[in-house]
Amino acid sequence: MTDTPHLSVVVPVFNEQDNVAPLVHEIVAALRGRAPEDGGDFEIVYVDDRSRDGTLDALQALKAQVPELRVVRHLSQSGQSTAVRNGVKAARGQWIATLDGDGQNDPADIPKLLAKRAESAPEVKLFAGWRVNRQDSGSKRWASKWANAIRSRMLRDDTPDTGCGIKLFERAAFLELPHFDHMHRYLPALMQRAGWKTVSVPVNHRARSAGVSKYNNLNRALVGISDLRGVAWLIKRGKVTATEEV
């Protein structure tokens, strides 16, 4: 691994002690040994959102085995969006791949996103995972389908699944986006607001093998209503202007 890797894999975690080691090893298996532009030149940045179990201890133990692994710890619990942003800020790669820390995203899909980037135009700055065969409960799938339909109607972001944790995006473009809690659920709309294009890519989805979900359908819905109104306002008030030096 170089001091400036081509790719940084950012993983936010909260109380995921039993999922840390399997996921880290899967990331390494998916990327190590590949060509640099295909993800072989990479680092892994875990952001611990002040876990109360053995997550941090598990990460510290893994650092001795996995030289690509770096660990950032929040000094106060701040939520997933802040963890993603702080991971991106700490990352050294020009491109960022994100994964949820629960193991439901498949690291083997990262090369697929990189391959899609290689065949896409430069103005595409976000490649969003699309869970075409979700392995969640029926109520969770129904709630997600309902939320995606409302979001798509309001924001017109042409994205079938914004809640998927696996994404690939340019670091610089991400850091220019407005930051707010839960903003990670609206990255396609926010990238488009900034003048960039986005592409959805079908990816694998797996059942959670350990730990418990940190969300339920009710709290997602209550927060989502307020967020949607806010993002719609941002889009309405946004303006992108090309410039040139004279």
Automatic annotation (TrEMBL):
One of its GO terms (cellular component) is plasma membrane. InterPro entries: Glyco_trans_2-like, Glycosyltransferase_2, Nucleotide-diphossugar_trans. Keywords: Cell membrane, Glycosyltransferase, Lipopolysaccharide biosynthesis, Membrane, Transferase, Transmembrane, Transmembrane helix. GO terms for biological process: lipopolysaccharide biosynthetic process. It comes from the Bacteria. Pfam families: Glycos_transf_2. Residues 8-174 form the Glycosyltransferase 2-like domain. PANTHER family: UNDECAPRENYL-PHOSPHATE 4-DEOXY-4-FORMAMIDO-L-ARABINOSE TRANSFERASE, UNDECAPRENYL-PHOSPHATE 4-DEOXY-4-FORMAMIDO-L-ARABINOSE TRANSFERASE-RELATED. This is Glycosyltransferase.
